[in-house]
Design goal:
Its cofactor is FAD. This is Pyridine nucleotide-disulfide oxidoreductase. This protein is an alpha/beta fold. The chain folds into four domains: 173 residues, FAD/NAD(P)-binding domain; 117 residues, FAD/NAD(P)-binding domain (3-Layer(bba) Sandwich); 123 residues, FAD/NAD(P)-binding domain (3-Layer(bba) Sandwich); 100 residues, Oxidized Rhodanese, domain 1 (3-Layer(aba) Sandwich), CATH 3.40.250.10. The chain has a five-stranded parallel β-sheet. A five-stranded parallel β-sheet has the order 9-16-10-11-12. Strand 28, helix 14 and strand 29 form a beta-alpha-beta unit. The longest helix has 15 residues.
C-alpha cells in the first residue's frame, strides 16, 4: 500500500531518509520541504571552501559524479518532490497535516502525510551582542555564508579576523584564515582551553601551542561584550579585557536544535531544545520520526540523553528512518561521541568521554597519556602520536580515548577502532589485546593502542605512577623549593644540554646505570623521572621501587610530550 511521506528539512538527514525510503517503496510518494533555497549540501565542508581546499562552493552541493542536488535532481533522479523556500509553520497531528507558508509570497497551504520526518536541523547560537548584525559578522552555517566570507577575503577586504569560540568550527575557520590567506587571526574563548569538555587540558594545550606556532592568537577566559563598526561594517570586537581590531568576525558559539515546531505539536522535547526519540528514531507519536541536529539520542556510555550535531550521524540516522518508514525495524541504539578536527598539519580526534566528562558523569576515573611513534621505529616516515585513555578504576572499563597527532589517517584510525567497540563497554584487556593490522609502514608490532591500554593497566596496578606534562610543569615551576629531584634517564648525549641550561636542577643517570649509581639519587625528595617518551623512565621507576625508593614519579609522554605542551626548559 503506497504512502505519502512528508519530510521537513532538506539538508542532511532529510534527503537521506527520503531517498532510502523511495528505493524501498518506489511506488510511494515523498514530499520534502525546506525554507531555504539551498538543500542537500555538505555543511561540514564550509571551512574548507573558505580555506581554498575546496575550490568551488558548488562542490558542497554536488554529488560525487558532479550533479547538482537541487529540486530538479531530486525529482528526475530520485523521484522526490521538493518544495524550497517553503516554511513548515505547524504540525497538526490529529489531522496528520503540515501547515506551510511560502517564504517569498506568504501564501499558506496544508500538506497531508501518512508519516512525517522532522529533519529541521539546528541554528547557530546567537549571543545577542550589540553589533551582531554588522556586515562582516558571520555564523558559517550555509554555503552562502562561506561565499560571502571568501569573496571579501579575495577582494582584500579582510586583513584581521576574530573567531568567537574555540570548538570545531572556530578552530577550522581559524586555520582557514591563517593558513591559506595569511590573515591575522585571533580566537576568543570564554572557557580556559580549546575544545572544552572534549579533550583534556593537556591535549588542549598541545593543540593550542601548535596553532600559535602557525600564527593564531588565543585569549581564554574572556567574554565578548560587543561588536563595533563603521559605515555598517564590523571593525572591532570588545571583550571584558581588551579591544581587538577585526574586519571579519566568525561567531561559533555552538548551535541550538530547531525543535520548536515539534514542541508546539506536543512532541516530547528537551527543555533546552531537541526532540526525544527512541531506538527506532520515532518520537512519542509513532507516525513521526526525527533525527539529525534536532534530535536527542542516548549516550551509550552514560545512558543519559545526548545531543551530537554531526553530519555523519545525520546521514546514518537518515538510512535508519528510511528503512523504518518502509516497515523495517532498524535500530539506532545511540552514540559514544566521536570526532576529529584538522588543525594545520595536526589534528584532534576522540571518542567517548574525556576525564572531565567522565567525572562529571559520576565515574571514578583516571586518565593516562602515552606518546609513541605511530609506526615501526625503524621506518623513515614515523611520527609521534599522543593518546590519552580514560578508564573507570573499579571496573577497568574504557570510557574514552582522545589524541593529538598528525593530520593523516594514522591517529583517526586508532580512534575509530576504539569507537567501534565502546558501546560494548570494553575493559582495558580488550584494547591491550586488540587485533590490528600490522606492517612497519603503518604501525608498530606493539601498536600504540595496545601500549596505551598496557599503560592504563600498569597505572591501575600502581607500578607506573606518574603525571603528564601538565603535572611536570607544576613541579618544574616550583623547582626552587628543592622538593623535586629531576632525573633524566636518557644517555648523557641527550641530557647534557639540559644539565648545562639548568645546573644543579637537571640531573642525569641513564636507566641502565641506575643500580650502579644509587648514591646519586636522593631518597628524601620526589624523584621525577624523564626520558624521551616515558618508557625508559618507567623501567627506571621499577628499578628504584625495587631498591626501596618511595617517592618516584614517572612523566608520562616524556620529553616529547613536554615539548608539545610548551614547557620551557
Amino acid at each position: 500500500m503506497s504512502q505519502h511521506i512528508v519530510v521537513i528539512g532538506g539538508v542532511a538527514l532529510g534527503p537521506k531518509a527520503a531517498c532510502r525510503f523511495k528505493r524501498l517503496e518506489p511506488g510511494s510518494r515523498v514530499t520534502m520541504i525546506d525554507q531555504s533555497s539551498l538543500i542537500s549540501y555538505g555543511g561540514c565542508g564550509i571551512p574548507y571552501y573558505v580555506s581554498g581546499d575546496v575550490s568551488d562552493a558548488k562542490e558542497l552541493s554536488e554529488t560525487s559524479f558532479h550533479m547538482l542536488r537541487d529540486p530538479k535532481f531530486f525529482k528526475e533522479v530520485k523521484g522526490i518532490d521538493v518544495q524550497i523556500l517553503t516554511k513548515a509553520t505547524k504540525i497538526d497531528r490529529e489531522n496528520k497535516q503540515v501547515e506551510v507558508e511560502s517564504v517569498t509570497t506568504g501564501e499558506t497551504a496544508s500538506i497531508s502525510y501518512d508519516k512525517l520526518v522532522i529533519a529541521t536541523g539546528a541554528s547557530p547560537r546567537k549571543l545577542g551582542l550589540p553589533g551582531e548584525d554588522l556586515e562582516g559578522v558571520s555564523y558559517v552555517s550555509n554555503p552562502g555564508d562561506a561565499t560571502r566570507i571568501r569573496e571579501a577575503i579575495a577582494k582584500g577586504q579582510v586583513s584581521n579576523a576574530v573567531i568567537v569560540g574555540a570548538g570545531f568550527i572556530g578552530l577550522e575557520m581559524a586555520e582557514a584564515f591563517a593558513d591559506m590567506w595569511g590573515i591575522e587571526t585571533t580566537v576568543v574563548e570564554i572557557m580556559d582551553q580549546i575544545m572544552p569538555r572534549l579533550v583534556s587540558p593537556t591535549l588542549a594545550k598541545m593543540g593550542q601551542k601548535h596553532m600559535e606556532e602557525n600564527g593564531v592568537t588565543f585569549h581564554f577566559g574572556e567574554t565578548v561584550k560587543a561588536l563595533e563598526g563603521e559605515n555598517g561594517k564590523v571593525t572591532r570586537v570588545i571583550t571584558d579585557k581588551r579591544t581587538l581590531e577585526a574586519e571579519a568576525v566568525i561567531i561559533s558559539a555552538g548551535v541550538i536544535p530547531n525543535s520548536q515546531i515539534a514542541a508546539d505539536a506536543g512532541l516530547n522535547c528537551h527543555e533546552r531544545g531537541g526532540v526525544f526519540v527512541d531506538e527506532f528514531l520515532r518520537t512519542n507519536d509513532p507516525d513521526i520520526y526525527c533525527g539529525g541536529d534536532c534530535a536527542i539520542v542516548k549516550n551509550l556510555i552514560t545512558n543519559q540523553p545526548a545531543y551530537l550535531p554531526l553530519g555523519s550521524m545525520a546521514n546514518r540516522q537518515g538510512r535508519v528512518i528510511g528503512n523504518n518508514l518502509a516497515g523495517g525495524e532498524t535500530r539506532f541504539d545511540g552514540v559514544v561521541g566521536s570526532f576529529v578536527v584538522k588543525m594545520f598539519e595536526s589534528s584532534f580526534a576522540g571518542t567517548g568521554l574525556s576525564l572531565g566528562g567522565a567525572k562529571a558523569a559520576g565515574f571514578d576515573a583516571i586518565s593516562v597519556l602515552l606518546t609513541q611513534l605511530d609506526r615501526a621505529h625503524f621506518y623513515p616516515t614515523k611520527e609521534l602520536m599522543n593518546l590519552e585513555m580514560i578508564v573507570e578504576k573499579g571496573t577497568r572499563r574504557v570510557l574514552g580515548v582522545q589524541g593529538f597527532g598528525s593530520s593523516g589517517d594514522a591517529m583517526v584510525g586508532r580512534i575509530n577502532a576504539v569507537a567501534a567497540i565502546l558501546k560494548s563497554a570494553p575493559v582495558i584487556e580488550d584494547i591491550s589485546n586488540m587485533e590490528l593490522a600490522y606492517a612497519p609502514p603503518f604501525a608498530a608490532a606493539m601498536d600504540i593502542l595496545n601500549a596505551l591500554a598496557n599503560l592504563a593497566d600498569n597505572a591501575l596496578r600502581g607500578i607506573n605512577r606518574g603525571v603528564g606534562p601538565e603535572g611536570f610543569k607544576e613541579m618544574w615551576d616550583d623547582r626552587e623549593s628543592g622538593e623535586c629531584f629531576f632525573l633524566d634517564c636518557r644517555e648523557n648525549a641527550d641530557a647534557a644540554a639540559f644539565m648545562e641550561r639548568n645546573p644543579g636542577q637537571w640531573h642525569n643517570v641513564p636507566q641502565g646505570e641506575i643500580y650502579d649509581r644509587l648514591d646519586e639519587i636522593p631518597r628524601d625528595k620526589n624523584v621525577v623521572l624523564v626520558c624521551n617518551t616515558g618508557a625508559r623512565s618507567y623501567e627506571a621507576q621499577i628499578m628504584l621501587d625495587e631498591k626501596g625508593y618511595e617517592k618516584v614519579i614517572n612523566i608520562h609522554g616524556g620529553m616529547a610530550a613536554i615539548k608539545k605542551y610548551g614547557v620551557d626548559l
